[in-house]
Write a structure and sequence with these properties.
Blueprint (H helix, E strand, L loop, with lengths): L24 H10 L4 H17 L13 H10 L6 E7 L5 E6 L11 E8 L4 E4 L3 E2 L17 E2 L2 H14 L24 E4 L9 H11 L12 E5 L6 H8 L2 E5 L5 H7 L8 H9 L10 E7 L7 H10 L5 E7 L13 H13 L24 H12 L4
Parallel strand pairs: 4-7, 7-8, 8-9, 9-10, 10-11
Antiparallel strand pairs: 1-2, 2-3, 3-4, 5-6
Helix pairs in contact: 1-2, 4-5, 9-10
The structure holds S-adenosyl-L-homocysteine.
């Protein structure tokens, strides 16, 4: 991958080596070997830890009743199960929750970056929208996150911890009590049943960590989410799409937003590198895409920009032959945004054309707009504070 001033290489985080929250099986095995657990015991011990961390949601070694007292003490001497801190929690009037998480510092002078993670409850499911990077390098012109400068990849542990934290806060581990405010799905349903990689960042620029995170989240002995309920969204990093499908088995979403290259170049500048023709070709060959496992095409409705009936008909033509569903997203405004949301009649007309061509075309109801938790509104407070500080000293 090549980087430039507009696409800087993301910094790699040196995650807190002492916390095992979010660790993969090989990482747990290495940690155990490092404290002298004999080789022949490691498999069993990894299975035990795995169960406690991911099935039971343990936050310390103490409750691990089937692990000997001596080993629990040794583990506690060397490791923790610490997760990133919740710096702020906001709950929208519609039940959407947004957590601002403070990550561990990655080096001298770093106070710890912040990322956001959003939970969207519906009657039949609960979706957690996770971030894959701090900030984003893509600079899509309608997305708030793209205006945030600081960028680094999240580690797999930091991605997985978003799910651990959400499940803890939602009372979704054995023995915990749900919030009881009626704002999580009904009885017998898991609070978090679906994951979408649609928070901050471009997941395919952090594919190795996203792949590890998907593996841990879908592991049947632990967090046990179905891979069909894990969706990775990309603005179209074409060369990594095949690998995503082959290595994770996750569902794919494409942030399409325009049906002509000249417009898409402006909305999603990555299009200049990977134009529509290449993107759609990669969708046609995406591993595992079938009518039962359709690719989602996200399309943000921008007033007088991409919302005409001609655009809708062209969209149908472009997607011909791809097992697709289309998600129309009313544009979510943010302070200073250069766009407006399309009028409702316009969205309905667009949706009708797509529907009549045989595609499911739900219009996504904006959720959590009152707490800036909706698509494209995420931008962490650190960056806002930094921007304010820059203004104060007279910089840009
Ligand atoms: N970088 C990945 C993951 C982010 S997903 C990607 O682009 O797919 C976030 C989704 O919200 C994307 O589809 C994005 O295009 C959409 N989005 C961004 N800003 C938005 C806004 N202001 N209103 C509605 N949707 C927006």
């Amino acid at each position: 991958m090549s980087y430039s001033a507009t696409h800087p290489a993301p910094l790699e985080a040196a995650h807190d080596p002492t916390s095992l929250a979010g660790a993969t099986r090989p990482e747990l095995a290495a940690a155990l070997a490092g404290i002298g657990v004999p080789e022949r015991e490691i498999r069993m011990r990894v299975a035990q830890l795995w169960h406690w961390i991911y099935h039971a949601g343990a936050t310390s070694f103490e409750p691990m009743a089937n692990v000997s007292k001596v080993l629990r003490a040794t583990l506690a001497e060397h490791f923790t199960l610490a997760r990133p801190q919740i710096a702020a929690e906001q709950i929208s009037s519609d039940g959407t929750r947004k957590w601002l998480l403070r990550l561990d510092p990655v080096g001298p002078g770093d106070k710890g970056a912040e990322v956001e993670c959003v939970y969207i409850p519906e009657s039949d499911r609960g979706t957690l929208c996770v971030s894959s990077q701090v900030g984003c390098t893509l600079n899509c012109s309608f997305c708030h996150t793209g205006t945030q400068k600081l960028v680094r990849n999240l580690t797999a542990r930091e991605i997985i911890c978003q799910l651990l934290i959400a499940r803890e806060r939602l009372g979704d581990f054995p023995g915990l009590v749900p919030p009881g405010d009626g704002l999580v799905p009904g009885e017998g349903l898991r609070a978090v049943s679906n994951i979408v990689f649609m928070g901050m960042g471009e997941p395919l620029y952090n594919l190795d960590n996203v792949r590890d995170a998907v593996a841990v989240m879908s592991d049947g002995d632990g967090l046990a989410l179905s891979k069909r309920r894990i969706t990775v969204s990309t603005a179209g990093v074409v060369p990594r799409m095949e690998e995503l499908g082959r290595e994770t088995g996750a569902m794919l979403a494409i942030s399409l937003h325009a049906v002509r290259d000249d417009l898409r170049d402006k909305l999603v500048p990555l299009n200049k590198k990977y134009p529509l023709k290449d993107l759609l070709a990669a969708c046609r060959t995406y591993p595992g895409a079938t009518n039962a496992r359709r690719i989602t095409f996200e399309y943000v409705m921008l007033k007088d920009i991409n919302d005409s009936p001609t655009d809708a008909r062209e969209l149908v033509r472009l997607l011909k032959g791809i097992p697709a569903k289309i998600n129309l997203i009313p544009f979510n405004p943010w302070p200073g945004a250069p766009y407006e949301c399309s009028d409702w009649e316009r969205i309905e007309k667009f949706s009708d054309i797509v529907f009549n061509a045989g595609y499911a075309s739900p219009v996504r109801t904006p959720r959590g707009r009152d707490i800036l938790a909706a698509c494209g509104q995420l931008k962490s407070e650190t960056e806002k504070l930094r921007a304010r500080a820059r203004l104060a000293v007279g910089e840009e």
